[in-house]
Protein backbone atom coordinates (compact mmCIF):
# COMPACT_ATOMS: atom_id res chain seq x y z
CA UNK A 1 0.00 0.00 0.00
CA UNK A 2 1.28 3.44 -0.85
CA UNK A 3 1.14 5.26 2.47
CA UNK A 4 2.02 8.61 0.90
CA UNK A 5 -1.06 8.68 -1.33
CA UNK A 6 -3.80 10.62 0.42
CA UNK A 7 -6.50 9.00 -1.69
CA UNK A 8 -5.47 5.36 -1.28
CA UNK A 9 -8.16 2.88 -0.30
CA UNK A 10 -8.19 0.75 2.83
CA UNK A 11 -6.67 -2.68 2.91
CA UNK A 12 -9.29 -5.26 1.95
CA UNK A 13 -9.31 -7.16 5.22
CA UNK A 14 -11.27 -5.89 8.16
CA UNK A 15 -9.28 -4.64 11.15
CA UNK A 16 -10.36 -5.52 14.67
CA UNK A 17 -9.00 -5.10 18.17
CA UNK A 18 -9.32 -7.22 21.31
CA UNK A 19 -12.09 -4.98 22.61
CA UNK A 20 -14.28 -5.67 19.58
CA UNK A 21 -13.41 -9.37 19.59
CA UNK A 22 -14.45 -9.74 23.23
CA UNK A 23 -17.50 -7.51 23.16
CA UNK A 24 -18.99 -7.95 19.65
CA UNK A 25 -22.01 -9.64 21.18
CA UNK A 26 -24.84 -7.11 20.92
CA UNK A 27 -27.14 -8.51 18.28
CA UNK A 28 -29.36 -6.25 16.18
CA UNK A 29 -32.90 -7.64 15.57
CA UNK A 30 -33.32 -8.21 11.83
CA UNK A 31 -37.06 -7.59 11.73
CA UNK A 32 -37.46 -5.58 14.90
CA UNK A 33 -39.36 -2.34 15.28
CA UNK A 34 -37.67 1.08 15.15
CA UNK A 35 -37.71 1.21 18.96
CA UNK A 36 -36.13 -2.26 19.36
CA UNK A 37 -33.37 -1.47 16.87
CA UNK A 38 -32.67 1.89 18.46
CA UNK A 39 -32.41 0.29 21.91
CA UNK A 40 -29.98 -2.31 20.51
CA UNK A 41 -27.74 0.46 19.15
CA UNK A 42 -28.00 2.64 22.29
CA UNK A 43 -24.93 2.53 24.51
CA UNK A 44 -21.76 3.58 22.69
CA UNK A 45 -23.05 7.16 22.56
CA UNK A 46 -23.41 7.20 26.35
CA UNK A 47 -19.82 6.05 26.82
CA UNK A 48 -18.64 8.82 24.50
CA UNK A 49 -20.86 11.47 26.13
CA UNK A 50 -19.08 10.82 29.43
CA UNK A 51 -15.97 12.53 28.04
CA UNK A 52 -18.01 15.70 27.53
CA UNK A 53 -19.00 15.95 31.19
CA UNK A 54 -15.79 14.92 32.95
CA UNK A 55 -14.32 16.94 35.87
CA UNK A 56 -12.12 18.87 33.45
CA UNK A 57 -15.18 20.64 32.02
CA UNK A 58 -16.47 21.75 35.40
CA UNK A 59 -13.91 24.47 36.12
CA UNK A 60 -14.53 26.38 32.87
CA UNK A 61 -18.32 26.08 33.22
CA UNK A 62 -18.24 27.26 36.85
CA UNK A 63 -15.92 30.21 36.08
CA UNK A 64 -17.96 31.19 33.01
CA UNK A 65 -21.26 31.24 34.90
CA UNK A 66 -19.87 33.06 37.95
CA UNK A 67 -18.16 35.81 35.94
CA UNK A 68 -20.50 36.36 33.02
CA UNK A 69 -23.88 34.92 33.98
CA UNK A 70 -25.70 33.08 31.21
CA UNK A 71 -23.79 34.70 28.32
CA UNK A 72 -21.52 31.73 27.59
CA UNK A 73 -24.40 29.24 27.28
CA UNK A 74 -24.18 29.85 23.53
CA UNK A 75 -20.55 28.66 23.57
CA UNK A 76 -21.55 25.41 25.27
CA UNK A 77 -24.30 24.94 22.66
CA UNK A 78 -21.95 25.61 19.72
CA UNK A 79 -19.28 23.33 21.22
CA UNK A 80 -21.85 20.58 21.57
CA UNK A 81 -22.95 20.97 17.94
CA UNK A 82 -19.29 20.65 16.90
CA UNK A 83 -19.07 17.48 19.00
CA UNK A 84 -22.19 15.98 17.40
CA UNK A 85 -20.71 16.45 13.91
CA UNK A 86 -17.27 15.07 14.81
CA UNK A 87 -18.65 12.06 16.69
CA UNK A 88 -20.92 11.28 13.73
CA UNK A 89 -17.83 11.25 11.49
CA UNK A 90 -16.20 8.90 14.00
CA UNK A 91 -19.25 6.61 13.82
CA UNK A 92 -19.12 6.73 10.02
CA UNK A 93 -15.45 5.72 9.96
CA UNK A 94 -16.10 2.76 12.26
CA UNK A 95 -19.24 1.54 10.50
CA UNK A 96 -18.18 2.05 6.85
CA UNK A 97 -14.43 1.33 6.96
CA UNK A 98 -14.74 -1.12 9.87
CA UNK A 99 -11.72 0.49 11.46
CA UNK A 100 -11.21 2.66 14.48
CA UNK A 101 -9.37 5.94 13.99
CA UNK A 102 -6.06 4.52 15.24
CA UNK A 103 -6.23 1.60 12.78
CA UNK A 104 -7.18 3.99 9.98
CA UNK A 105 -4.13 6.14 10.71
CA UNK A 106 -1.91 3.06 10.77
CA UNK A 107 -3.26 2.04 7.33
CA UNK A 108 -2.65 5.45 5.83
CA UNK A 109 0.34 7.22 7.37
CA UNK A 110 4.05 6.51 7.50
CA UNK A 111 5.16 4.56 10.63
CA UNK A 112 7.03 7.61 11.96
CA UNK A 113 3.90 9.75 11.67
CA UNK A 114 1.85 7.04 13.35
CA UNK A 115 4.32 6.83 16.23
CA UNK A 116 4.09 10.60 16.77
CA UNK A 117 0.28 10.48 16.64
CA UNK A 118 0.29 7.62 19.15
CA UNK A 119 2.54 9.55 21.55
CA UNK A 120 0.26 12.60 21.34
CA UNK A 121 -2.78 10.43 21.94
CA UNK A 122 -1.22 8.72 24.94
CA UNK A 123 -0.37 12.12 26.41
CA UNK A 124 -3.99 13.20 25.93
CA UNK A 125 -5.32 10.04 27.60
CA UNK A 126 -2.92 10.55 30.52
CA UNK A 127 -4.11 14.18 30.80
CA UNK A 128 -7.72 13.01 30.78
CA UNK A 129 -6.93 10.43 33.44
CA UNK A 130 -5.23 13.17 35.44
CA UNK A 131 -8.49 15.17 35.41
CA UNK A 132 -10.39 12.07 36.56
CA UNK A 133 -7.94 11.41 39.40
CA UNK A 134 -8.14 15.01 40.60
CA UNK A 135 -11.92 15.18 40.21
CA UNK A 136 -12.47 11.95 42.14
CA UNK A 137 -10.00 13.00 44.85
CA UNK A 138 -11.70 16.40 45.24
CA UNK A 139 -15.11 14.67 45.46
CA UNK A 140 -13.86 12.28 48.17
CA UNK A 141 -12.40 15.23 50.03
CA UNK A 142 -15.59 17.28 49.84
CA UNK A 143 -17.98 14.44 50.70
CA UNK A 144 -16.00 12.50 53.32
CA UNK A 145 -13.18 14.82 54.38
CA UNK A 146 -10.53 12.46 52.95
CA UNK A 147 -7.25 14.37 52.35
CA UNK A 148 -6.54 15.05 48.69
CA UNK A 149 -3.30 13.06 48.69
CA UNK A 150 -5.08 10.02 50.19
CA UNK A 151 -7.96 10.42 47.71
CA UNK A 152 -5.49 10.40 44.83
CA UNK A 153 -4.06 7.06 46.03
CA UNK A 154 -7.55 5.59 46.53
CA UNK A 155 -8.29 6.11 42.84
CA UNK A 156 -5.94 3.18 42.09
CA UNK A 157 -8.76 0.91 43.28
CA UNK A 158 -10.79 1.64 40.15
CA UNK A 159 -8.26 -0.53 38.26
CA UNK A 160 -9.94 -3.55 39.83
CA UNK A 161 -13.40 -2.11 39.11
CA UNK A 162 -12.49 -1.90 35.42
CA UNK A 163 -11.31 -5.52 35.38
CA UNK A 164 -14.53 -6.69 37.02
CA UNK A 165 -16.74 -4.79 34.58
CA UNK A 166 -14.81 -5.94 31.50
CA UNK A 167 -15.32 -9.55 32.58
CA UNK A 168 -19.10 -9.08 32.58
CA UNK A 169 -19.55 -7.86 28.99
CA UNK A 170 -19.98 -4.60 27.11
CA UNK A 171 -23.70 -4.18 27.84
CA UNK A 172 -22.87 -4.32 31.53
CA UNK A 173 -20.37 -1.50 31.16
CA UNK A 174 -22.90 0.55 29.18
CA UNK A 175 -25.52 0.01 31.90
CA UNK A 176 -23.16 1.13 34.67
CA UNK A 177 -22.19 4.24 32.71
CA UNK A 178 -25.84 5.00 31.94
CA UNK A 179 -26.70 4.68 35.64
CA UNK A 180 -23.91 7.07 36.65
CA UNK A 181 -25.01 9.56 33.99
CA UNK A 182 -28.53 9.40 35.43
CA UNK A 183 -27.12 10.20 38.89
CA UNK A 184 -25.29 13.23 37.46
CA UNK A 185 -28.38 14.31 35.51
CA UNK A 186 -30.67 13.98 38.55
CA UNK A 187 -28.20 15.81 40.81
CA UNK A 188 -27.99 18.83 38.53
CA UNK A 189 -31.73 18.84 37.88
CA UNK A 190 -32.18 19.14 41.64
CA UNK A 191 -29.56 21.91 41.80
CA UNK A 192 -31.28 23.85 39.01
CA UNK A 193 -34.63 23.67 40.81
CA UNK A 194 -32.97 24.98 43.98
CA UNK A 195 -31.06 27.78 42.23
CA UNK A 196 -34.21 29.13 40.46
CA UNK A 197 -32.54 30.59 37.34
CA UNK A 198 -34.20 33.37 35.39
CA UNK A 199 -35.80 31.80 32.33
CA UNK A 200 -35.60 34.73 29.87
CA UNK A 201 -31.91 35.62 30.47
CA UNK A 202 -31.11 31.91 30.32
CA UNK A 203 -32.77 31.56 26.89
CA UNK A 204 -31.06 34.74 25.70
CA UNK A 205 -27.73 33.20 26.71
CA UNK A 206 -28.20 30.55 24.01
CA UNK A 207 -27.87 33.29 21.36
CA UNK A 208 -24.21 34.19 20.59
CA UNK A 209 -23.24 37.77 21.49
CA UNK A 210 -20.52 40.00 20.03
CA UNK A 211 -18.99 40.66 23.45
CA UNK A 212 -17.84 37.03 23.66
CA UNK A 213 -15.25 37.93 21.02
CA UNK A 214 -14.60 41.55 21.98
CA UNK A 215 -14.15 40.95 25.73
CA UNK A 216 -10.71 39.30 26.21
CA UNK A 217 -11.61 37.72 29.58
CA UNK A 218 -14.82 36.28 28.21
CA UNK A 219 -13.08 35.06 25.05
CA UNK A 220 -10.45 33.23 27.11
CA UNK A 221 -13.06 31.30 29.10
CA UNK A 222 -15.10 30.68 25.93
CA UNK A 223 -12.06 29.09 24.28
CA UNK A 224 -11.48 27.06 27.42
CA UNK A 225 -15.04 25.73 27.23
CA UNK A 226 -14.61 24.82 23.57
CA UNK A 227 -11.19 23.29 24.14
CA UNK A 228 -12.43 21.18 27.06
CA UNK A 229 -15.58 19.97 25.31
CA UNK A 230 -14.42 17.86 22.34
CA UNK A 231 -12.20 15.11 23.76
CA UNK A 232 -9.65 13.68 21.27
CA UNK A 233 -9.70 10.17 22.73
CA UNK A 234 -13.46 10.04 22.20
CA UNK A 235 -12.94 10.10 18.43
CA UNK A 236 -10.77 6.99 18.69
CA UNK A 237 -13.14 5.35 21.18
CA UNK A 238 -16.38 5.89 19.28
CA UNK A 239 -15.05 4.58 15.96
CA UNK A 240 -14.20 1.33 17.75
CA UNK A 241 -17.08 0.62 20.12
CA UNK A 242 -19.72 1.28 17.45
CA UNK A 243 -18.42 -1.95 15.88
CA UNK A 244 -19.47 -3.97 18.94
CA UNK A 245 -22.92 -4.19 17.31
CA UNK A 246 -23.55 -7.24 15.13
CA UNK A 247 -25.17 -5.40 12.23
CA UNK A 248 -24.95 -6.87 8.69
CA UNK A 249 -21.69 -5.76 7.07
CA UNK A 250 -23.49 -4.92 3.81
CA UNK A 251 -24.28 -1.58 2.18
CA UNK A 252 -27.86 -1.61 3.51
CA UNK A 253 -26.72 -2.86 6.89
CA UNK A 254 -24.17 -0.06 7.17
CA UNK A 255 -26.76 2.56 6.18
CA UNK A 256 -29.05 1.34 8.93
CA UNK A 257 -26.19 1.20 11.43
CA UNK A 258 -25.20 4.78 10.57
CA UNK A 259 -28.76 5.98 11.13
CA UNK A 260 -29.28 4.34 14.51
CA UNK A 261 -25.73 4.83 15.81
CA UNK A 262 -25.99 8.50 14.77
CA UNK A 263 -29.24 8.87 16.75
CA UNK A 264 -27.60 7.22 19.76
CA UNK A 265 -24.64 9.60 19.53
CA UNK A 266 -26.71 12.76 19.07
CA UNK A 267 -29.14 11.92 21.90
CA UNK A 268 -26.30 11.11 24.30
CA UNK A 269 -24.43 14.31 23.46
CA UNK A 270 -27.57 16.34 24.10
CA UNK A 271 -27.56 14.84 27.62
CA UNK A 272 -23.97 16.03 27.93
CA UNK A 273 -25.09 19.48 26.74
CA UNK A 274 -27.74 19.60 29.47
CA UNK A 275 -25.22 18.70 32.17
CA UNK A 276 -22.58 21.20 31.02
CA UNK A 277 -25.22 23.88 30.59
CA UNK A 278 -26.63 23.02 34.04
CA UNK A 279 -23.24 23.60 35.68
CA UNK A 280 -22.97 27.04 34.08
CA UNK A 281 -26.64 27.89 34.83
CA UNK A 282 -26.30 26.93 38.50
CA UNK A 283 -23.09 28.94 38.74
CA UNK A 284 -24.74 31.96 37.10
CA UNK A 285 -27.93 31.79 39.17
CA UNK A 286 -26.14 31.11 42.46
CA UNK A 287 -22.84 33.01 42.26
CA UNK A 288 -23.11 35.68 39.55
CA UNK A 289 -26.44 37.08 40.77
CA UNK A 290 -25.20 37.26 44.38
CA UNK A 291 -21.98 39.06 43.53
CA UNK A 292 -19.70 36.02 44.03
CA UNK A 293 -18.04 36.47 40.65
CA UNK A 294 -14.61 35.26 41.78
CA UNK A 295 -15.69 31.63 42.12
CA UNK A 296 -13.35 29.84 39.75
CA UNK A 297 -13.01 26.24 40.88
CA UNK A 298 -14.89 23.21 42.15
CA UNK A 299 -13.92 23.69 45.82
CA UNK A 300 -15.21 27.26 45.95
CA UNK A 301 -18.47 26.23 44.29
CA UNK A 302 -19.03 23.36 46.73
CA UNK A 303 -18.39 25.51 49.79
CA UNK A 304 -20.73 28.31 48.65
CA UNK A 305 -23.69 26.23 47.46
CA UNK A 306 -25.01 25.39 50.94
CA UNK A 307 -25.04 28.94 52.40
CA UNK A 308 -26.40 30.48 49.19
CA UNK A 309 -29.11 27.89 48.50
CA UNK A 310 -29.95 27.28 52.14
CA UNK A 311 -29.57 23.47 52.26
CA UNK A 312 -26.65 21.09 52.76
CA UNK A 313 -28.21 18.78 50.16
CA UNK A 314 -27.11 21.22 47.45
CA UNK A 315 -23.43 20.63 48.22
CA UNK A 316 -23.93 16.89 48.77
CA UNK A 317 -25.60 16.41 45.38
CA UNK A 318 -22.84 18.48 43.77
CA UNK A 319 -20.18 16.25 45.32
CA UNK A 320 -22.00 13.04 44.34
CA UNK A 321 -22.27 14.24 40.73
CA UNK A 322 -18.54 15.05 40.71
CA UNK A 323 -17.63 11.59 42.02
CA UNK A 324 -19.91 9.90 39.46
CA UNK A 325 -18.36 12.03 36.71
CA UNK A 326 -14.83 11.01 37.68
CA UNK A 327 -15.67 7.29 37.82
CA UNK A 328 -17.51 7.40 34.51
CA UNK A 329 -14.60 9.04 32.74
CA UNK A 330 -12.26 6.44 34.19
CA UNK A 331 -14.13 3.69 32.35
CA UNK A 332 -13.99 5.34 28.94
CA UNK A 333 -10.38 6.46 29.35
CA UNK A 334 -9.34 2.86 29.95
CA UNK A 335 -11.16 1.61 26.85
CA UNK A 336 -9.70 4.41 24.70
CA UNK A 337 -6.18 3.64 25.89
CA UNK A 338 -6.59 0.01 24.95
CA UNK A 339 -7.86 0.96 21.48
CA UNK A 340 -5.09 3.42 20.56
CA UNK A 341 -2.24 1.18 21.70
CA UNK A 342 -3.54 -1.76 19.69
CA UNK A 343 -4.52 0.37 16.71
CA UNK A 344 -1.27 2.27 16.30
CA UNK A 345 1.26 -0.33 17.49
CA UNK A 346 -0.65 -3.62 17.45
CA UNK A 347 0.54 -4.19 21.03
CA UNK A 348 -1.96 -6.06 23.17
CA UNK A 349 -1.40 -5.69 26.90
CA UNK A 350 -3.48 -7.31 29.59
CA UNK A 351 -6.21 -4.81 30.62
CA UNK A 352 -4.97 -4.55 34.22
CA UNK A 353 -1.39 -3.80 33.05
CA UNK A 354 -2.59 -1.12 30.62
CA UNK A 355 -4.86 0.43 33.26
CA UNK A 356 -2.23 0.42 35.98
CA UNK A 357 0.37 2.12 33.75
CA UNK A 358 -2.05 4.88 32.72
CA UNK A 359 -3.27 5.45 36.26
CA UNK A 360 0.23 5.62 37.75
CA UNK A 361 1.23 8.20 35.11
CA UNK A 362 -1.70 10.33 36.29
CA UNK A 363 -1.27 9.69 40.02
CA UNK A 364 2.36 10.77 40.34
CA UNK A 365 1.91 14.48 39.38
CA UNK A 366 -1.47 14.65 41.14
CA UNK A 367 0.03 13.27 44.35
CA UNK A 368 3.03 15.62 44.27
CA UNK A 369 0.89 18.70 43.62
CA UNK A 370 -1.76 17.77 46.20
CA UNK A 371 0.88 17.27 48.91
CA UNK A 372 2.90 20.37 48.06
CA UNK A 373 0.22 22.89 47.01
CA UNK A 374 -3.12 21.52 48.24
CA UNK A 375 -6.48 22.55 46.79
CA UNK A 376 -5.27 25.49 44.70
CA UNK A 377 -2.52 23.42 43.14
CA UNK A 378 -4.87 20.60 42.12
CA UNK A 379 -7.31 23.14 40.65
CA UNK A 380 -4.52 24.61 38.50
CA UNK A 381 -3.44 21.10 37.48
CA UNK A 382 -7.01 20.34 36.43
CA UNK A 383 -7.01 23.35 34.10
CA UNK A 384 -3.57 22.40 32.76
CA UNK A 385 -4.85 18.93 31.86
CA UNK A 386 -7.49 20.57 29.65
CA UNK A 387 -4.82 22.61 27.84
CA UNK A 388 -2.95 19.38 27.05
CA UNK A 389 -6.15 17.87 25.67
CA UNK A 390 -6.70 20.96 23.54
CA UNK A 391 -3.20 20.65 22.08
CA UNK A 392 -3.83 17.05 20.99
CA UNK A 393 -7.33 17.58 19.59
CA UNK A 394 -6.26 18.78 16.15
CA UNK A 395 -4.14 15.65 15.63
CA UNK A 396 -7.29 13.53 15.94
CA UNK A 397 -9.76 15.80 14.14
CA UNK A 398 -7.72 16.41 10.96
CA UNK A 399 -7.19 12.70 10.06
CA UNK A 400 -10.84 11.95 10.85
CA UNK A 401 -12.13 14.71 8.55
CA UNK A 402 -9.61 13.74 5.87
CA UNK A 403 -10.50 10.02 5.90
CA UNK A 404 -14.30 10.45 5.90
CA UNK A 405 -14.00 13.02 3.10
CA UNK A 406 -12.08 10.64 0.81
CA UNK A 407 -14.10 9.01 -1.98
CA UNK A 408 -11.44 6.32 -2.42
CA UNK A 409 -11.70 5.33 1.24
CA UNK A 410 -15.43 5.76 1.92
CA UNK A 411 -17.01 5.03 -1.46
CA UNK A 412 -20.68 6.03 -1.59
CA UNK A 413 -20.54 6.91 2.12
CA UNK A 414 -18.08 9.77 1.55
CA UNK A 415 -19.06 13.03 3.23
CA UNK A 416 -21.49 15.11 1.21
CA UNK A 417 -20.12 18.49 -0.01
CA UNK A 418 -22.02 20.42 2.69
CA UNK A 419 -20.72 18.08 5.41
CA UNK A 420 -17.17 18.44 4.09
CA UNK A 421 -17.45 22.22 4.31
CA UNK A 422 -18.90 22.06 7.85
CA UNK A 423 -16.19 19.62 8.95
CA UNK A 424 -13.40 21.81 7.51
CA UNK A 425 -14.82 24.91 9.19
CA UNK A 426 -15.09 23.13 12.54
CA UNK A 427 -11.53 21.83 12.18
CA UNK A 428 -10.21 25.30 11.36
CA UNK A 429 -12.03 26.90 14.31
CA UNK A 430 -10.75 24.25 16.72
CA UNK A 431 -7.17 24.60 15.48
CA UNK A 432 -7.14 28.41 15.64
CA UNK A 433 -8.85 28.66 19.04
CA UNK A 434 -6.73 25.97 20.60
CA UNK A 435 -3.55 27.65 19.34
CA UNK A 436 -4.81 30.89 20.89
CA UNK A 437 -5.58 29.09 24.17
CA UNK A 438 -2.11 27.55 24.16
CA UNK A 439 -0.49 30.94 23.51
CA UNK A 440 -2.46 32.61 26.31
CA UNK A 441 -1.58 29.80 28.70
CA UNK A 442 2.15 29.95 28.00
CA UNK A 443 2.40 33.72 27.41
CA UNK A 444 -0.54 35.27 29.30
Automatic annotation (TrEMBL):
Membrane-spanning parts: 38-55, 67-91, 112-138, 144-165, 172-193, 218-237, 258-282, 302-324, 386-406, 418-438
Annotated keywords: Cell membrane, Ion transport, Membrane, Symport, Transmembrane, Transmembrane helix, Transport
GO-annotated cellular components: plasma membrane
GO molecular function: cadmium ion transmembrane transporter activity; manganese ion transmembrane transporter activity; metal ion binding; symporter activity
Membrane topology: Multi-pass membrane protein
Compartment(s): Cell membrane; Membrane
Coiled-coil boundaries: none
InterPro entries xrefs: NRAMP_fam (IPR001046)
Biological process according to GO: iron ion transmembrane transport
Family assignment from sequence similarity: Belongs to the NRAMP family.
Stated role: H(+)-stimulated, divalent metal cation uptake system.
PANTHER family hit by this protein: NATURAL RESISTANCE-ASSOCIATED MACROPHAGE PROTEIN 2, SOLUTE CARRIER PROTEIN FAMILY 11 MEMBER
Name of the molecule in the record: Divalent metal cation transporter MntH
Organism, scientific name: Epilithonimonas zeae
Taxonomy of the source species: Bacteria, Pseudomonadati, Bacteroidota, Flavobacteriia, Flavobacteriales
